[in-house]
Write a structure and sequence with these properties.
The longest helix has 32 residues, at 339-370. The protein is of the alpha/beta class. α5 (110-121) runs parallel beside α6 (135-142) and α5 runs parallel beside α16. It has an 8-stranded parallel beta sheet with strand order 4-11-10-9-8-7-6-5. The protein has helices at residues 7-15, 31-38, 41-48, 55-66, 110-121, 135-142, 157-169, 188-193, 205-208, 211-214, 225-235, 246-252, 265-273, 295-306, 321-329, 339-370; strands spanning 67-69, 84-86, 89-91, 95-97, 125-127, 147-151, 174-178, 257-262, 278-281, 311-314, 334-337, 384-386. The protein contains 16 helices and 12 strands. Helices cover 42% and strands 12% of the residues.
């Protein structure tokens, strides 16, 4: 795929010769509004909503906007290579689809559609523990494509162990452990609709299909679904977990482990001390702590603390190709994108997700070239200045 991502624009222009225009906007910042118009407020609110008054989500966007790219001229950029190695895996571009739960809220094809889109474009798909499709079915939809499993670390160690064993058996190569959700935050959009999908048995497929989970039920899930939901709620997350508990994951997972939700440099150091492989600088897209530091503002400090001990990835607030460029310039090895692909899924299924991936990477490819870079290796903090946004 080296150097070919930008060709998507010519494909669009050539299709225009027959009167065809893209089914979805190529400005991905417009997708949220379109999705709001097409789907119900509960469904969209669960994806688009944030903690508190949304200040952290806004700060994520502002922190990226405040950093401005300084293009360089007369450099040979006629061939570009966006490929990157992440945790020993060769990727065609520095992008993965972030873990987002309950995708059946957005489209009936749910996680398998998004996973197939990622596979078709060669980017990793990170499957949420809270998916509406069991992990084995998602793996089957992807064939041999790169897939990572995101763990919401449950209170019951047997369920955690079972999840890890199932994920490994299903071909998930890396484990992404979300640390920033030991409790659900105060989310007014969901509260105002009194809507939490898990209470309706949506987003619980990995649990309800798990032998260790089912062993804790008095009756099978289909005979007493409410009891199954309450069993899930009781174990979903564990606010008592601390750094020494990471040893459990190391003992039960033999691939790379990424800790998602790291914002403080000291937490990056603790992750390295615990033998972790990577951190994802993320504030959960603004969904967990209102008033929190913007992810892009936290990124340079975490990169400096990580040094060569950890790979640093980034998510939260990414909407455009230039956002990806900026995160890479600030030291991220690769970027996870969340809400935009979910909106693409809601609007046009698998094709919508592929559209989002191709738009993001075409814009990144062009931004790279027009800023004077042929590879990702040459971009750094010196390519950015801080402005007013």
């Amino acid at each position: 795929m080296a150097g070919n991502w930008a060709d998507f624009q010519y494909e669009i222009y050539l299709n225009g010769m027959t009167g065809a225009v893209p089914r979805l906007p190529t400005d991905l910042t417009r997708l949220e509004e379109l999705t709001e118009r097409r789907l119900g407020p509960g469904q969209v609110g669960y994806v688009a909503g944030s903690a508190g008054d949304g200040s952290t989500a806004r700060a994520n966007r502002a922190a990226l906007a405040r950093r401005r790219i300084v293009p360089r001229m007369l450099r040979d950029v006629h061939e570009r290579d966006l490929s990157v190695e992440v945790l020993g895996r060769a990727l065609p571009a520095p992008l993965a689809l972030a873990p987002v739960g309950v995708l059946s809220l957005m489209h009936p094809d749910a996680e398998p559609a998004a996973a197939r889109a990622a596979a078709a474009q060669g980017v990793p798909f990170v499957l949420s523990s809270a998916s509406s499709t069991p992990m084995e079915q998602v793996a089957e939809a992807m064939g041999d494509a790169e897939r990572w499993f995101q763990l919401y670390w449950p209170k019951d160690p047997e369920v955690a162990r079972s999840f890890l064993g199932r994920a490994r058996a299903a071909g998930f190569t890396a484990l992404v452990v979300t640390l920033d959700t030991p409790l659900l935050s105060w989310r007014p959009r969901d509260l105002d609709q009194a809507f939490l999908p898990f209470l309706h048995g949506v987003g619980t497929a990995n649990y309800f299909s798990d032998p260790a989970f089912r062993a804790g039920l008095a009756k099978p899930v289909h005979e007493d679904p409410n009891a199954a939901v309450m069993h899930f709620v009781g174990m979903f997350s564990d606010p008592a977990k601390t750094w020494p508990d990471l040893a459990f994951l190391r003992e039960n997972w033999d691939g790379p482990i990424l800790l998602k939700g790291v914002l403080h440099p000291d937490d990056a150091r603790l992750a390295a001390d615990a033998g972790m492989d990577a951190v994802v600088v993320s504030n959960h897209g603004g969904r967990q702590v209102a008033g929190a530091v913007a992810a892009a503002d936290a990124l340079p400090g975490v990169v400096a603390a990580a040094g060569d001990r950890l790979t640093v990835l980034f998510d939260s607030g990414v909407r455009t190709g230039d956002d990806v460029f900026k995160a890479l310039a600030l030291g991220a090895r690769a970027v996870l994108v969340g809400r935009p692909y979910v909106y693409g899924l809601g609007l046009d299924g698998q094709a919508g997700v592929e559209h989002v991936i191709r738009c993001l990477l075409a814009e990144l490819d062009l931004t790279l070239a027009l800023s004077g870079h042929a590879t990702l290796a040459t971009i750094g903090p010196g390519d950015l200045v801080e402005g007013a946004g």
